[in-house]
Each structure stands twice: as structure tokens, then as C-alpha cells.
Amino acid sequence: MKAALYAGFNAIHGGGGPQEAMHQKRIEREIMCAVTGMSARRTFGLAVSVVAISVFVIAFAVWKGRRPKVIAVVPETTAQEIWEAEHAGATEAARAFGWKVYWNGPSREDDFPRQVQIVRQAIARRVLGLVLSPDHDVVLISTVQEALDKKIPVVITGTPLGVSLGNGLTFVLNDDAAMGRMAAARAARLLKPGDTVAVLGVNPNVLSSIERANAFEDAIRTKVEDVRVEEKHSTSVSTAEAEEVAERLIRADPHLRVIIALNVNQARAAYGAVLNTRTVDRIPLIVCDQDLDLLHHLRSGRIDSLIAQNSYGMGYTAIQNIHKQLAGEAVQPLTAIAPVLVTRENVDSDAVQQVLNMDWRVRQ
Amino acid sequence: MKRTRRSLGSVCTVVIITVAAGCGVHAWLRWHSDRVPPNRVFALNGGRLEGAQSFGGVWEVAHGNVRNNSDERGAKLVTGSQRWRDYTLTAELKFDGEHGDMGVILRSTDEEEGVDAYNGYYVGLRTTDAALIIGRSDYGWMEAKPVPMPGGIHAGNWYRLVVTAVGCHIAASSQNLTTGQIAWIAVEEHPCAEAGRIGLRSLATGGSWRHISIKPAMQIDDLTMRGHAASVAQLEFPKREADYNRIFHFSSTYESPAQLLGPAEPQSEKLLHIGDLTDLPRSPDRDVSLRGVVTLATRNLYVQDEESGMLVMDALTPPLNVGDEVEVVGHAQPGLYSSVIRGGTVRLLWSGQPTPPIAITALQAASGVYDARFVEVEGRLTRVRQPRKTEQTLEFMQGGQSFTALYASPSGASLPPLKINSLLRIRGVCVLDRRVTQEMTPFAILLRSSDDVQMLAPPPWWTPRHVSMLLAVLLGVGLLIQLLYFRLKVWQANAVSQERERLAHDIHDTMAQSFAGVGYQIQGIRSGLQRKSYPDSRAVVEQLDMAYQLVRKSHEEASRTIATLNSSALDIQGCLLDSLIQTTRKITGDSVETDARTEGAPFRLNLRLANALLHIGQEAIANAVSHAHPTTLRITIRYEEPRVELAVEDNGAGFHYSQEKAGFGIFGMQKRVQSVGGKLEISSTPGAGTRVYVTAISRPSTLHARIAAKTTEKLHRIARFLNI
């Protein structure tokens, strides 16, 4: 409207000259006042108010949209102490950077729908970074991709995810192959040629279990002649089901000399099975992954040995990876953290206790 | 009037301040009172704990008890205010099984679903080491050294927990209500969680709570409780595994649950899974032994393994919870989609964790693949029925498939109010059994608790009622806009009419009279020439001179009117006196001496008043010059905010002024003065000049005035553009 008035005015009066310009400015003021019905002072006041409100709105938007300095660490489950060590490691590393850790996970290790929900909530909160120990090697791919699309660096810990590395995604994994080889080395001391060794808990949905089993089988065949390896697959976390499988195996094969349990649930099931079949002394248990009750059984001599993931180290390294990524530094795409063999002899050593450190209440 | 308005303003100010202060005091009192919990026993209204919110678990109220029918780790039911600070919480609890934890939460905030997903304290009984425990949860768990519970902790026994939290001290006692044995524990933590809600929590077991009450606590309460405890402990376990292993006493029951329950039933050679049952011959019935996890225990017993589910009927069953791992031995009856085990026994093997639901569509559920399994389905609610007092039926539609959800509560608890057409997510056991579906829908979902119904989206807003309301509102707004538009148009028309009236007065007073005089002169000349009454041409010339004088005068009048029109009210709003001086010069040139002055401190006049004063001043100057032939004009403007006075005085001929004889010019001035609420005084004496005096109050411009001024401005601008 204003432009149209100018155009009409110029068409009649023409333009040019300083006086004309001043006149035009005066007319402009007149038109502004006539159109808005406001004086110059009031217009100025309004302009100041608009600017002040705009500044307030922008400041509020910035405040609301600010990214909290929180790293989400989502373990496979919060029901096992193995992951408390990751919590402790992540918290210790985050403290150095002034970050806080949001720690939550499903209450059982196959509840991937709940894990997806937790991760998505963390993404919605626009966390600085995400550390995830996936419950399934495929289901969480889309969720992780969603985080990466939003420029949230993601570190996968524990078991790998079936997705290519890079673009903000790094892996800090347990060295599952080393775990399998450690189990084989320990089992080789207990086996004779012709004996059977059972491997419980091979889960096609969890890549780490397959890698552990393969590494164990490869290693044990080189160490013990004519050894028979009995692999039992299971996608269930039901201890009762696993216990039944183990019991039947013990009863069916008199040459069974060692049981390798590839995770905590299978370890508990195998433990129950040897108790039920009164074969505690005859069939030593070598278990992968740690929990407080298993370590208690190890201390009491009912479990031969336990190969612990260094989940403390994984949590610590994962946070450092995120810091490097946010700082634009180069990050090693794949870091394998060596597991630790825990026996009655070394369980109280500082090296082992550091791996089992569960002190997540580091003062932040 | 002015005093009345000021008084009104003062009263309004006082009222506003009083109301604001009252609100502030009320808010402070409310905030302060919220920090102190009420002294009360929690009511179990409508089958729910008063104001409670659940985070996991299968909660219900039955027989005056709050129950969790699930073994879920860290299931919580939370209620109360986040600002409650110092209080004593009392509750009695009973374990369903021999494993797990049960207790109460206090000072809780930031709750989520998860084992330790809350920020607060937990005080409970733990069966695995038969101890009373206190710990801090902050999305992680840290506890004080557990205190053994004398006599142990056993399923079926009631225990009373009393917990007092004052400042950063928390103390608790646990009493076996059968034997009377008591354990005491006390901790302190700095800094601590200072305030929060209360709740019930269980881990890896189901159980019941009753007689839940709360009351404010004082220092003396804390001291009394602490006096019974052996020591005041710190929260320091399990930081190191080695330390924890030394203080944690794994009970024998924890070591071999299945072994303690006795040898298993004779087992078949081949390990059977539940899904294998449908492949068995239909007759005769075959005895089988199967293991699985309980998915529903309240209505019928449903058990499932990794791939399939089944119904267990008429079996000897111990108290079971969702998540329990059991062994079922009985007669298998293969079904079309799933099987039924009849008779026999059910053995509890482990307290497990409830199986997560499988998210499926209604079409997948209807296919039968998921019969007797724990699933999650979304659907739009079409109807809610209550065939019996203890049962509710929800009817759904999704993707062309209709289905029902059945909720049965022995205590008569009902689902929360649900709106038809809401999009809901429901969890439960999928059943295709025709006795359940009554052949009305392909399948039904058996709900475990009211928490199995989750609202995803309320009904869409475009219901016929909402659309009608929206249309009505739009119509109302449209009518209002139209009304305002017409009102503005009327204001504008009034303003234009007023300006036209003023112009008519001006033209009548000046040019119209002159033109009439010219007409008379020309008519006289014409008549004289026709009658040949002029003796010579001198008389004609004299009359033509007179006509010429009248035309010249008319031209001058027109110039004055145009000069008046050219003045912009906006221009003179800040410099009225200058405008009047310019007007005088335009009309008189330098023939009249002008004495113009301003008295007082000038202030900005409102647009309407400035416009009126300008025109009154111009009219007075024009009248003086036209009729009085003065040699001196004195123009005075006196400012005394908000009052302004204008005086135009001349030393001309003067006249006998009377209201009745006033012409259009004076009448126009009077109308202008009236329009701004001012006062006009004219005093004149023949031979002694004339004084025109105006006084008025400057008030903020009204919308109407602004429109009138705007219209005037437009007329002025048009006059300028036409260069007249």
C-alpha cells in the first residue's frame, strides 16, 4: 500500500532534488502516520517493543533448543551387573568432559522393543551422543540411523550391529574371538581326546555369540584331539528352557566333560543343570560374561572360570570416542577390548576388580 | 469528573495489587503446604491406589490389597507429590514367591520404566540374602550394608515396613507380623534426595501391599528410629565386587531353585516345545511335560515359550505371576492354532522376567499364528461394554479387522475412562477360542491389568460436533468482522460528511455570496442595457468595475479556502502558531502587521484538536481581513497542559455580535469547538476590534477522531495533487 502511494505521488510530482527528497520523506512520514494512525514516537516505541519481544522469543527458542550435555548410555539390560561396570566407566569418562550420563535399558536382554523406545526417547531429547549395546543385531539399525541422521554420534558397545561403520558410527566391542580362544585354552586343560564339550547359548540374533562359539571351536580342535563339540542354539533368554536343555545334554552324553556357557542366562541354567544332575564335580563350567551371583559361584568353586567382558573399559572408551567425534578428531572405527579370564586365584586382583568396578556414583 | 476518574484509577490499582499479592500468598502457602505430606491412609478407589501411576508390572487392587502379578524387575507404582520432604511411610507387604525384592520407594522423582529408573530411595526386603535393605537409586543402584531379617523372609508372611525420612537421614524397620521379629536399619547420605513421591516396588517377584499410610515426620521420629539401628550406614555397595561378595549372603534357595522343588517328572526322549503339540495326534490324549513362561495368571493360565503359547486348564497350580518360568505336566489336547493342557500339575522353576509382547497387526492376530501368545496390537476403539460388574469389553477396529479386548477384575476394578474413536495400544494374550470371541470377532485380547491399555491418540477432532462448533465460531468471527467493517465505514462516512459540511459553510460564507453579487451586477448591467437606461458608458463601466471587484474578491476568497485546505493537520500538530502566521501572510500579504506569540510550554496536541484550532484560527483571520480591515492582528496560543487557548484579536472595524445574527462562518467555528469539547467566546465592539477566544482540553485521539483526521488529510492531499 505504501509503495502504491509513493508511486502515485511520484507520478504526479516527479522526483529529484534535495528539497524534493526532503519533501518526499515528509510525505512518507505523513503516509505512515496516516496509514497506521500513530505518531513517530509511538512508532518508535512499538518498534522497540517488537525488537525486545523478538529478542526474548529468540532467546527463549535458543534456551529451549539448547542441546543438553548428556550422553545416553543404553545397555542390553539394566538387570545384570555386567552392565553396571559400563555405567561406571562411562560416568568416569564423562566427568572429565563435564557431561552427564543418562543410563537406562530394558529389564531383560531380549526386550528390543523397549530398547528401541529408550533410544528413540534419548534421540528426541537431543542428547550429545549415544552409547548402545544392542539387544538384536538387526532391529536397532533404523534407530541408530535415525540418531546419525540427527548428527548424534553413536558408539556400539558389546556386540556388533549389522550396519557399516563411519558417518558418526563407531564400534567399541568386546573381543569375542579372544573370549572364545580363552575359553578353549581353559577347557583344553580339562579335556582329554574323545571327550565332549557343550557350547550353550549360540543365538543367531546376537553376532557376538556366534563369533565366540566359532572361535572356541576352531581353537579347541587345534588343542585337543578328537574332541566333540556339541553346540546348542537358543534365541530364548528363559533360564528354565536352557536349564532343561543342559540337563538333557548331561544325561544323554556320558562323555560330556566341560560346559561353555556363552552368556549369563546360559551360565545360570548350566549351573542349575549340574546341580540337578549332581555333576558339579564331574563337569566344570566355563562361563562368558559376569554377574555377581556367577562370581559368587566362582569364588565357591562351583564354576571353574569366568571370562569377563571389560565393560568398564568399553564404557570409558565409548565416551572418549564421542568426545573425539564432537571435537572433529579422527576416531578409530573399531576398537576391540580384550576380555579378562577370572579364576578363584585372580578374582581379588586389582586388574580383575577394576574390570568389575560398579561404582557409577562418581561425583559429577 | 477528573477527580472521579483519578479515584477510580487509584481504586483499580489498589485492587490489582491486592489481588496479585493474594495470589502470591496463596501460591506460596500452597507450595509450602505441598512440602508437608498429609496424615492419611491411602484409599484404594475404583480398584486403583489413589493417584498412582505405574511403571511396569501388572498391578491391581484385590481384597483390599494392592497386588503386582508380575515378576518384572523394578516394577513401580508411584503416587504423591514431588515436593513431599520429611515423612514416615508405613506399608505391609507379602511375597508371592521365595525370590526377589519387595518394598517401598520414597522421595522419588524422574520415574521411568526400568529396573532402577527413578531418582530416590528404596527400602525393602530381599529374599536372596533374607535382609532389610536401603539404597539410593538414580538410574543405578547403590545400597547400604544389608541387615539380616531375623527368622528370614518367607512367601505368604506379612511384614510391616516403617520408613522415616528426615533431612538426609533415612531409617527403617521391618517386622514379621507372624513372629513379631524386627530388624532396624539407618543410613545417611550427603547430598541427598530431599523431596519426592512415594511408591511400591518389586523386583523379580509378585506380591501384595496393604495398609499404606503416610504422615509428616519430625527430627524426634528420626532419632527414635535411628536409636534402634546398630549403626548409621553409608551407601557404598556394590562399588567393588570383592567387597560386595563379602557382605552379600547368597541364600541356598537362590543356588538351586529347581533342585529344591524335587526331581522333575519323567521326561520323554525328545525335548518338546509348545509348538510341537499341534503336530501330535488328536487322540488319544498324550501326557507331556513342557516348560515356558507365564503370560497370564489371573483369568486362565497361559504359558508360552520362544515360539508358541498354550492354555493350561484344570491343573494343580501354585500361586503364579506373569514372568514365572514353569514346568507343566498334563494331557495335551492339540488345537487348530494352539493347544490346551488339561489336568496334571504346574511346577514353579524360576522367578523370571515377563516376556515382552510381540507387536502385530490385527490381521496377523486374526491369522492364528499368534494364538495364545502375548502380543501388542493397536486399534481404534469403537465401543465399550460391561457385560458383568467384574468384566469390561472393549471393541476395536483396525485395518478392516474387528476384535475385542476383555478385562476381568475380581475386585470390580475398571479401566480408566476411554473415549470412543481413540487410538489405543493394548497388550495381552491373543485368543482365537470361539468360547472367548463368541464368534463375534476373529480374535480377542485378554488384558492382564488396566495398564495394558495405552492411549496413543485421542479421537480425531473432526467429529460432526467439533466441525459444527468450528463452523459456528467461524461464522461468529465473520459476523464480528463484518460488523466492525460496517462500523468503520459509518465512522468514515460521518467524518466525510462533517468535512463536507464545513466546506459548505466556508463556500457559502465566501464564494457563494460573492458569486451572487457578481450575478446581480451582471444582471443589472444587462437590464440597464436592455432598458437603455445608461446615459453614457461611464455608468456601465462603473458597474463593470463593481462586478470586477466582486470577481477579484471571489478569487481571493477561493485562494483563502484553498490555502485553508492546503494546511495539513499533521503539519500543524506540533507548530500551530507557524501555520496560522503562514495563513495570515497568504491572505493579507504584508498589508497587516501580525503579532504572534506562544505562552506556556508547548505540548503535542491531539490531531483532532490541532485541526479544529487551525481552522478556527484561519476562519477568524479570514473574517477579520475580509470584514474588519484591520492594520494589526494579534494571535496568541497559550499552553497549560492539557489545556490550550487560542486568541485572535484585531483592531479593525468591529461589529455588534449576537448569537442569533451569527453567519455560517461563526456557526462553523462553533461546531468545530463543540466537536472537540471546547469553548468559543467572541467579543466585538464597533470601532474597537474583535477578539475570538477558544479554550479546549487535549485528550488522546480516539479511533473515530483518527479516521476523521485521516479523511481530512486525504481531502487535503487531493486538493494538493489537483493544485487548486
List keywords for this structure.
heterodimer, A: 364 residues, alpha/beta, Rossmann fold, 3 domains, 13 helices, 50% helix, elongated, disordered N terminus, B: 724 residues, alpha+beta, Jelly Rolls, OB fold (Dihydrolipoamide Acetyltransferase, E2P), nine-stranded mixed β-sheet, eight-stranded antiparallel β-sheet
Summarize the entry for a quick read.
The complex is a heterodimer of chains A (364) and B (724). Chain A has 364 residues and is α/β, with parallel strands linked by helices.
Describe the overall structure:
- The complex is a heterodimer of chains A (364) and B (724).
- Chain A has helices spanning 2-13, 18-36, 40-65, 81-96, 112-124, 141-149, 176-188, 207-223, 239-252, 264-276, 292-299, 311-326, 350-355; strands spanning 70-74, 100-103, 129-132, 154-158, 169-174, 196-202, 228-233, 256-261, 285-288, 305-308, 334-337, 340-342.
- With 364 residues, chain A is of the alpha/beta class.
- Chain A folds into 3 domains: 2-65; 70-174 and 310-339, Rossmann fold; 177-308, Rossmann fold, CATH 3.40.50.
- In chain A, the strands form 2 sheets. In chain A, strands 2-1-3-4-5-11 form a 6-stranded parallel beta sheet, with helices on both faces. In chain A, strands 7-6-8-9-10-12 form a 6-stranded mixed beta sheet, with helices on both faces.
- The longest helix of chain A has 26 residues, at 40-65.
- Chain A starts with a helix and ends in a 9-residue tail after the last helix.
- The longest helix of chain B is centred in the last third of the chain and has 68 residues, at 464-531.
- The relative contact order of chain B is 0.06.
- Chain B has 4 domains: 40-255, Exo-inulinase, domain 1 (Jelly Rolls, Sandwich), CATH 2.60.120; 258-351, OB fold (Dihydrolipoamide Acetyltransferase, E2P) (Beta Barrel); 358-457, OB fold (Dihydrolipoamide Acetyltransferase, E2P); 483-721, Heat Shock Protein 90 (2-Layer Sandwich).
- Helices cover 32% and strands 32% of the residues of chain B.
- Mean pLDDT of chain B is 84; it is low at 252-268.
- Chain B starts with a helix and ends with a helix.
- In chain B, the strands form 6 sheets. In chain B, strands 1, 5, 6, 8, 14, 15, 16, 18 and 19 form a 9-stranded mixed beta sheet that branches.
- In chain B, helix 8 packs antiparallel against helix 9 (537-566).
- With 724 residues, chain B is an alpha+beta fold.
- The chains are: A alpha/beta (364), B alpha+beta (724).
- At the A-B interface, helix 2, helix 4, helix 5, helix 9 and helix 10 of A face helix 3, helix 5, strand 20, strand 23 and helix 14 of B.
